[in-house]
Amino acid sequence: MGNRNKIYEMFQTIRKKLTWSYAVSLVMNPIQLPVAAFLIIVAELIINILVVERVPYTEIDWKAYMQECEGFLNGTLDYSKLRGDTGPLVYPAGFVYIYSFFYFLTNYGENIRLAQYIFIGIYLLQLLLVLRIYIKTRKVPPYVFLISILTSYRIHSIYVLRLFNDPIAVLMLYVSLNSFLDGKWYLGSIFYSLGVSVKMNILLYAPALFFFYLINLGLKDTVKQLFICGIIQLVLGLPFIISNPIAYLKGSFDVGRVFNHTWTVNFRFLNVETFESKCFHLTLLAIHIVLLIIFLPMCIKYFKSYCRLKYVQKQVQPQIDAKNTESKRRKLNKSKQKFDMKAEAQEKITKEQEDFLNSFEAMLQKSSQKSGKKNTKKPIALEEDTYYNINFDILSQLFILPMFIVNFIGVACARSLHYQFYSWYFHSLPYLLWSCNFTVITRFLLLAVIELCWNTYPSTNLTSALLHICHFFILYGVYKKISSELNVASKVQ
Length: 493
Hints:
Layout: H1 2-17, H2 20-28, H3 33-54, H4 62-73, E1 83-84, E2 87-88, H5 93-105, H6 112-137, H7 142-148, H8 153-161, H9 166-181, H10 185-198, H11 206-243, H12 245-252, H13 272-275, H14 278-348, H15 351-371, H16 397-412, H17 429-433, H18 440-455, H19 461-492
Antiparallel strand pairs: 1-2
């Protein structure tokens, strides 16, 4: 009879979950994102396999990557001599090692299909890390991901149809962000530096990360973390630095590189002469610096709040855990006492008495079923076991928003955006938009226009202008929201 009651209780619990309100919460409530995240991962696995199997692969940089790595594997360590069909090698040493590994895995770069499946794994792993951040922050409703992530043609193309190195750098970045959220500083620094070693766009996060180190760790430990980041770059690049240090630094970290106007997504409306002029590049750099000067003080206040509240968590969490342990112990003791009393009573009653009690219990159950809703009230428990909990994960918002906005500023001020650069900030766009006070329609409109701009090939004067307009609205929306929140916080203090 005990097992039958347990099954009945389990059935009732499941039945209560299968309601319209619960179904709505799975779509609308950020707290329910773990369930939606599982469905998104499964859906993405299916979508990516279908894309690989049914959509023709387009060669852009993969062969050039393999040619560059082949030169390295043949013993060439002078960066100026490592070239492919698209030109000289322009990425740091981490890229060379990773793609050399792919070179052997894919039969010297010939097995494209295997490479595509490797990138499916890279995409799913990154998506898992992205969703983990969104689960912690509880900022964005699940339906946003179901619409934006699953329907992005360009992002799937970048990962599994083009095999660019940008996704690998971004994957390292998200490993790093998750590590910082878990308080694993050394691991975070290692993966951040590894991301930079694949492609230098990860340095766009550096201004925010530097102040995050400084506020949380102090100057001494900040120097340690910077040393770790630096030593990784040195160790990875050492063979090439010994061979030709100038060629390596100029090739892998060329901040003055002039991009080809043919591939630009964001400045199609400029003529080639203006696009390639040094004055234009310096103007963009000046705008980038001004925006950082505007946003970084607000980011620093967020980081300070994060640091204080994390300190509070360290003080409070042991007390919460102790209370919950005590509550659990009381519950176990109570259950044990009931079991002992029941066992003792069973030892004393006769067979006839047991039959009478069973028939009496059945009669009571039958009576309660007949009464229907008349007896729906449950007796009030005299003493309930309380579970204490504070969701400290939501503090992640104070870390993630500054990191995402600083990277977004770098993307918005980039001297040129190529199609694969969409992966630099695509997965942060929902968070940034839901950090604005825009209506839901406005948010989705901005997402749709941005997706349209990145899907238009070749880019046009209109799409380039629209992309800048969308970037401006997001920057303005985030600035206004952060300013209002900090004003409220200052009044409370």
